[in-house]
């Protein structure tokens, strides 16, 4: 059989039985079997370097051994697996550990809400409590934001294809320009003007929600200065500041929370993806106590908000944050990645490339239609898992597991460069 | 320390660190540690009979041994844990097994969508595709429906406390009376009149969504005849019929799908909760192929739609459906439960009780304010996990694991009866 | 030229220059020139009996002589014509006269708001103040209601063609079944059940809005008993009761307000159409003082809310209500009309007719597709202006000026009967 | 009695019987009786110079003698007063005259829709047809726009006090920055970026609606170049361009349509206020034929869309546009007004004044809280009718009848200057 035929045969089940909505199995048409650290293998035994990390869910790499052992031990002991929000030891230990290792050292004071185990669920809960606390209905979000696919989260998401999928107009949200959105224009000045002018047509919102680095929107990193100004605006008008750190949090940018370098203190923080340790569904919403107390019991809930296996892995993952070593290592690798990104951009001017992002959340925006997609497709054929992002899939997005080493980064970047050469040569 | 003080000490972490939104840890103030079959134990070693089953998530009981073994083996082999919608063996095997064991024998033809691992997510995906296919925006749902807590699902949910939590008006939905909603009135005639009258103010909807037995809404079971009429209305006006079988499906009512006895063929079916085998987050949306093809790749997605541990347990759970034995056993136990429910109602006229539900999804509606809550609280103290449902928490809701045996049912019902006596004696 | 050609020539300007949205000039393709009392004449000198009264705007007939004289005199004296809501004598006199002749004798206490000179405008203002006072967003309206064409009013209107014209989904409203909507079912029981059940999915509304006789919706007259029950529901749940008396008010049903026989006391009443005396644009909203005081100055306004010519004619029209004579005369003519309607229905069983309405707001619902339209078209050819209403234009609607005499009614009914005979003979 | 007591006595009827929503009778607490040209007299015989013109409704002055005579004659002849959209001579003549005098000479091709006789009604009709034609739901409007008070128009209006009055969130609209909204920033670049970026969160709208000079919003005049760019954007993305010329049209800025100097060709134009000649309620919507044909008969309607007295005055008013003389005269007076505005600003630096507007639609923005209001109140006491506009009532707004002469302008400006001196001296 030819390669295409072999691939078709391999993917037959998905083609025949699974919904047309599936996406990753189209771009990476193989069956993945094993994974460890920053490597994955498919059923044909082919090895892949992972520059994707489960869309930011595997910051601690695949199949961390201690997490595996603890999860296995728990199952073996008939530990309670599913518990909604009943009391269990893994839930208790996670809460205590999170306070001790993450909140207290950063002088942050939040109540921890378990809203259901997905990113969109933490966002929906954040929007609800912000609206409830303020009695206002609208929320300001930003261009190219991505906050999730359920109607509440989707209403604050920028992507028109995703929004259109709702099948209904999306309300109670206003889209404002993210940092550096319009050339040479100060987007804070716009936002400020809209807020201060009672004739602007934009109501005082319940909240402003943002990602400090927009992952799906094209790895757009806001400047710390911009974030500080946003916080100042929020304080001035009593608007709640929600940081959606689902993708950029959990150390992705070099600190546990992505907003730490800005020195801001958000009212609500959304975490999911890597919070669950090694890929198990989990999400939490951090809410300042003075706002949290407005919740009624069960006012937002969800069946799977008690995933004990995830709590166990999550608690283990927090060990990485006991000292600064983990963060410093990420920052070092980030610097290495930056250097290489710049090098590639310089070396291949045909890409019309621009560097994007910060920490281990970087990208190359490629100003040639379709080129980023072609490069990523070629990289897959050569053993590198890397995807595009941005409104036109124009950004090659580097999201390796944080535990990757320099050798792994070099290997991955090597494959990427070969792919670029190959595609440009066509 | 007094009991209350001991309880406070035990629950201190949750009180101090967790959000005020928590609910079950308030009603059942202990820390659960172990669970097997239909029994749970807390950290004090106290045993509980489980008439709750993780709100319908543990139909196959706690910690099924084969599921445990298969999951442990997969983790041990560094199987890929988190995969979004990439191809993996557990996903492939689940798809094939689901077709073979569930769809084919029932002559049902659906594509399987993995929408993110929660009930609300499958509902949101169902609403989206229905709106997309029909080009219409509104959806008809029913009084006392519960479909989820994210804004799309919440808009078709009846409970005013939950709706109010949205903090925004909920749109694009119309609430119609469920079967037997108003005494002596035919709710189908009512619905039909609204649909056929172009001046009714109710637009032709994209879909009608319903639970055949409303779990959260008070264990209201629609008659099969009513369901058939709904299907007929849908066909007549080209409205998509969505069955939300998140709680009533997976064998809960005595057949895999709750709608089987009605002989209807819904356009979309939502499954979650027990589909994941032993409590791991998972959800699927079943969509008729002619509608499914309208999805664009990634038009609805979600990070955790590739929970491989759940796929493994889910595939194992499907073995129960290879023959009719499992279903027949559920039906037998359901009959036993019904008989006992009637007996209790007769024996304690002070309850002003009415039987509700079908299969192993039954309840007693108690027409005395606060009484159902008191009974459930007393039952917990005596070692039975059972909760209330209904708009005023007026229904004691029996949702034991389907694998429970007669002995277990007897034990649980015994505790319940003791609790009733105790509460009535006060 | 043939008749059709002559007609085309006559209507050429409208066909060529006016929008396709025009409607009456299509059904009655002529140019009207003169009008007096209950008669109209076109430019060809053809006389028409008016059973339409400007869709209920000309209750006092065409060109009442005293109104004409007073209006002319005012213009002659350079009286201020357009004054928004500045103080003017005609405004002052109308206010005083309305209190004296209408409100005081009926022991009604309302503030008078001038919301802009159209029916939809009074409805929009009523909805606003109800929402403002209660802090609730939704409003309950009824099947086949017609309240206006601007988005707020349209959201509480039933007709699907009109609603669809909005081009956007219409929100913040719930449609409930009007009196006698579903055969043999008690629509109050439905509404009550939805309101009392906190799980119904229908939020406590700001207001219930209704027409006591639905004009556009098919001349559906609610029973007095039903209206009383609605008022009781409103009181029980602190819902504001809005009566839209735009078409049924101003004496149309035999009393100044259509709701007088029910003995109810609405919180808000909407008046327009005939309030302006002889066809000049005017509308008022009557609001109980305790609710009215919640308005901020200018919170609802409109350029043409100071149409002084209308105020003059309106004040003159109120003279009709100084004694009971006018009302009694209407009631007598209504009885005469009823008798004839029944006679026609009996005499022409092919019509499958049902009588509708009350007062001088009556109709014959004809259960044969297209027949009502054919009869009205034929009637026009024979010199009678009468239109259809109802969701399928199935009701012949009798709305003669209230000042018509028995001779006029007989003449009109004679033409109608001839038209019926002619159409049935085809 | 003291003056305040006398005033109270005079305004007693309004205070006691009229709604709290009234506004102008508060600021100008007197009873107006007579009016001619640019002068008004109250019942005490006090004369006022009118720099308000009925909020732009009396461009042709009060009680134009020819209009008076024609209207009186028509009434005398028992001309049909109220006709919905039936054919009548005044309607026919208006249509023909409007085409001949206005459309044809400007090479504009529009169908004329009569949507109900108010500004908000023409806007509602414009939004409907734009949504219908494009199948899109949202409309872009601008900061400080004012389009009307019914829910559809209000949703594209900027003022937060007015919006808040809706009592419901306002949907299907996006507010974009008007020309010169943010200092030194190009608002076209901003708008363009949102439209071209598929991730912007702003959907492709059905229409862009704007006033070329924002009347209520603070007499903000867009530059012609900005208007041209808006038209270009609309063409590029197939967005309908709606010009709301309700206040700025009918010659107010020196040409019949306010947009003529920009050389643009809007898809839809809204006219009301002065279109009715001397203050009678009337509105029209001009729609390009290719879009107009999408209307169904009666898809938007309204009882008072056939105000024949208004048609007669309107037709007479069009005579002013047979030659250029009227327009040239307005332009001359506008230049005189501009000069004086600048003079005042220079002479009274305490005002911190900025000139606003163009044509006879000018203003002085005063950057001192409350000062503009104080000046206008004083001006009233001295015999000048002039109001403020802008989100904080910070702009003194000059809107004299267009037929005013230089003497009238001088007189009015003299009173204004005296008022300024008086207020500044306090």
TrEMBL record, chains A, B, C, D:
Its EC number is 2.6.1.76. It comes from Virgibacillus salinus. Belongs to the class-III pyridoxal-phosphate-dependent aminotransferase family. The keyword Transferase applies. Keywords: Aminotransferase, Pyridoxal phosphate, Transferase. One of its GO terms (molecular function) is diaminobutyrate-pyruvate transaminase activity. Coiled coil: none annotated. Pathway: Amine and polyamine biosynthesis; ectoine biosynthesis; L-ectoine from L-aspartate 4-semialdehyde: step 1/3. This is Diaminobutyrate--2-oxoglutarate transaminase. Its cofactor is pyridoxal 5'-phosphate. It comes from the Bacteria.
């Amino acid at each position: 059989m030819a390669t295409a035929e072999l691939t078709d045969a391999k993917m037959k089940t998905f083609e025949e039985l699974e919904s047309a909505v599936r996406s990753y199995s189209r771009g990476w048409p193989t069956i993945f079997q094993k994974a460890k650290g920053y490597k994955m293998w498919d059923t044909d035994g082919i090895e892949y370097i992972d520059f994707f990390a489960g869309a930011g869910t595997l910051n601690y790499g695949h199949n961390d051994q201690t997490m595996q052992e603890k999860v296995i031990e728990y199952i073996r002991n008939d530990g309670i697996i599913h518990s909604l929000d009943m009391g269990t030891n893994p839930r208790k230990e996670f809460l205590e550990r999170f306070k001790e290792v993450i909140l207290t050292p950063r002088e942050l004071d939040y109540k921890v809400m378990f809203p259901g185990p997905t990113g969109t669920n933490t966002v929906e809960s954040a929007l609800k409590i912000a609206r409830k606390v303020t009695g206002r209905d609208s929320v300001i979000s930003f261009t190219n934001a991505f906050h999730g696919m359920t109607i509440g989260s989707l209403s604050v998401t920028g992507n028109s294809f995703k929004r259109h999928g709702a099948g209904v107009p999306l309300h109670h949200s206003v889209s404002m320009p993210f940092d550096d959105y319009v050339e040479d224009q100060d987007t804070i000045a716009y936002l400020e003007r809209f807020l201060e002018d009672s004739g602007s047509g934009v109501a005082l919102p319940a909240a402003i929600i943002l990602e400090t680095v927009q992952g799906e929107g094209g790895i757009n990193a806001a400047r710390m200065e911009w974030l500080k100004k946003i916080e100042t605006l929020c304080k001035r008008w009593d608007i709640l500041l929600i940081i959606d750190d689902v993708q950029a949090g959990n150390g992705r940018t070099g600190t546990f929370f992505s907003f730490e370098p800005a020195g801001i203190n958000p009212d609500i923080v959304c975490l999911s993806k890597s919070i669950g340790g090694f890929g198990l569904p989990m999400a939490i919403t951090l809410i300042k106590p003075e706002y949290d107390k407005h919740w009624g019991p069960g006012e937002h809930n969800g069946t799977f908000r008690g995933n004990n296996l995830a709590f166990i892995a999550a608690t283990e993952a927090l060990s990485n944050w006991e000292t600064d070593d983990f963060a410093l290592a990420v920052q070092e690798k980030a610097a290495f990645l930056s250097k290489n990104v710049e090098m590639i951009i310089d070396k291949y001017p045909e890409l019309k490339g621009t560097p994007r992002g910060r920490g281990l959340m970087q990208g190359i925006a490629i100003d040639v239609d379709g080129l980023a997609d072609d490069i990523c497709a070629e990289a897959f054929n050569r053993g590198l898992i890397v995807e595009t992002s941005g409104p036109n899939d124009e950004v090659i997005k580097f999201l390796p597991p944080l535990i990757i080493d320099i050798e792994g980064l070099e290997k991955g970047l090597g494959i990427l460069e070969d792919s670029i050469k190959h595609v440009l040569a066509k």
